[in-house]
Amino acid sequence: MYGFEALTFNIHGGYLEAIVRGHRSGLLTAADYNNLCQCETLEDIKMHLSATEYGPYLQNEPSPLHTTTIVEKCTLKLVDEYKQMLCQATEPLSTFLEYITYGHMIDNVVLIVTGTLHERDVQELLEKCHPLGMFDSIATLAVAQNMKELYRLVLVDTPLAPYFSECITSEDLDDMNIEIMRNTLYKAYLEDFYRFCQKLGGATAEIMSDLLAFEADRRAVNITINSIGTELTRDDRRKLYSSFGLLYPYGHEELAVSEDIDQVRAVMEKYPPYQSIFSKLSYGESQLLDKAFYEEEVKRLCLAFEQQFHYAVFFAYMRLREQEIRNLMWISECVAQNQKSRVHDSVVFIF
Amino acid sequence: MESSENGRESNEGISVKEENILNFLDSVDGYLILMDSLSSTLRQGWLELASARHSMGASRINSTLFDLKLHPASTTLQVNDQSAAPDRELPHFTLCKWASSNNPEKYFEEAKFGEDELLKKSNSLRHRDISHNSEIQARSPESVGSPVTVDDQAEKERYKSLSMFGTLVSPKLRASQLSFETALEMLVEVSNMRASLLCAHDQVQKDMETATK
C-alpha cells in the first residue's frame, strides 16, 4: 500500500538505495563542466577527469586520446556500477534493473542486423555494441535473413522475445523494415516496463509513470520530426507511438498528420508541461529541441531523488549518468574540432 | 606618325600586361576566398555530424554502419577532355550530383551551369565582393533559382544515401549531409579556380620573360 514503504523497503532495498544515492553525489557539477569547457585539448580533459570518479578508468589510456575512447571508458564505469548493484539486488529490484537495459539491447540487435545487411564483419559490430545491452547469443544475429529467423534462432531466448509478436514477418530485412522493427520493439518495451512499474505500485509506480510517460511522449515527437518527408506513411507512423503518455491518444492523432515542425509545435503547445520546452525554440527551428527535452528530463530525474523508498532512483541515476556521458562526448568533440564556442549548444547541467 | 603608332602599341602592350597581372591577383583572391569558405563549410559539417551523433546515439552514427555492398556512385566528377575542346586551355571539372539510372544527364547539365558561370567570371576582371563568401554558404541545392535545382529524385537519392544510418534520422544528420554536399561543390569550384589561377600565373610569367628580353 502506498505510504507504507518506509516499514519494509529497507529490508531488501535499503542498502542499494544508499549505494545509488552515494553514486549520485559523484555526478559532475557545474564547476566541473566549466573547467572542462575551458580545456584546449583532449589531454586537458583527461587531466580534469582524473580528479573525478572517472580518473581510474582514463589514467592508463595512451596518447593521443580520441573522443570515442573517453566515451567508452566513462561508459565502462557506469557498467561496473550497474553490475555491482544488479548482483546485490533481490526481486523485484533485480527485474527492475534488468528492464533498464532492454533499450540498449534493442539498439545492439538493430546495430548487428543493420551492419550484417551492409556486409560488415560481426566482430567489428560487436565492439561497437553497448555493454549494457549484451547477451550471450548476440553474435548469432548475423545469420538471420528475416524477422522470423531472427526471432526463432536468437531472440526467442532473450528478454526481447515478448516484444517481437507485433513485428514478426517473413519479409527480408531492409533499412525500412529494420527501422520499423526498432521502433516497434522499443514501443513494446516501454509499454511492458510501464505495466511492470504499475504492478509494483506505491512511489515507484507514481514516479516511474511520469518518467516513462515523458519518454514515450519524447519518442513520439522525435519519430514525427524524423519521419517528415520520408516514405513512412501516416498509419505506420501512428503505429510506432506508445499507447500511454500525456499525448495518448489525441496528441498522437494530431502528430500522425503533422507535416512540418511548426505543426508539431502547434500540437505540443496544447499540453502545458511541453509549452515551456517549445517556448525556448523559435518558429521553424528544431536544432535546440533535443537540448530542451534533455533539460526537462534531467529536471524530472533529479526530482526522483527527493523521495525515498522507491526504485525510480535507480532508473534516474542510470539516465543521469548517460546524460553526463553525452555531455562529456559533446565537450570532447567541441575541443577536438576546435569549436569551443559551440560547447554550450548541447551541454545539459545536472546540478 | 610611326612613333605615335609605336607609342600606342606599347601602351596597349602595357595595359594587356597589367590586365594579366590583375587577372592573376583576382584569381588568387577568389581562390583564397573559396578555400576559406570550404574550410568553414567542412567545420560546420563535422560539428553537425557530432551533433547528430549526440542526438541519435553513438550506436546509430558510426563508421561500422557504412555499406560495403557494391553500388553505383550517386555523384561523379567529369574532367573535360582538352582534345575534345581545343579552344579551352584549362582543364574543367564538372560535378554530376545525385544522378539516377533513369536520367543521368539531367543533373550533369544543371551542375555544369554553375561551372560555366564561374568560368565567365574568371575570364573577366572580378571586383572583390565580400558577399561572395555568404553567397557560396547560402547557396544550397534547395534554394530557388540556384544553379542546381532540387526535385524529388534528388531528395530520394539523398535519403537513400543516409539510409545506412536508418530511415528515421535526425534533421541534424540531414543538415550535416547538406553541408558536406555544399563542400563538395566548393571543392569543384576550387579546382576550376585553381586551374584558372595557374593559367593566369603562366601568362604573367610569360609577360615577365618577354619584358626582360
UniProtKB/TrEMBL annotation, chain A:
Keywords: Hydrogen ion transport, Ion transport, Transport. Gene3D superfamilies: ATP synthase (C/AC39) subunit, domain 3, V-type ATP synthase subunit C domain. Coiled coil: none annotated. InterPro entries: ATPase_csu/dsu_sf, ATPase_V0-cplx_csu/dsu, ATPase_V0-cplx_dsu, V-type_ATPase_csu/dsu, V-type_ATPase_csu/dsu_dom_3. SUPFAM superfamilies: V-type ATP synthase subunit C (SSF103486). One of its GO terms (biological process) is proton transmembrane transport. It is found in: Vacuole membrane. Its main location: membrane. It is a peripheral membrane protein. V-ATPase is a heteromultimeric enzyme made up of two complexes: the ATP-hydrolytic V1 complex and the proton translocation V0 complex. Subunit of the integral membrane V0 complex of vacuolar ATPase. Vacuolar ATPase is responsible for acidifying a variety of intracellular compartments in eukaryotic cells, thus providing most of the energy required for transport processes in the vacuolar system. This is V-type proton ATPase subunit. It comes from Abeliophyllum distichum.
TrEMBL record, chain B:
It holds the Pfam family Vma22_CCDC115. Residues 131-152 are annotated as: Disordered. This is Vacuolar ATPase assembly protein VMA22. It comes from Abeliophyllum distichum.
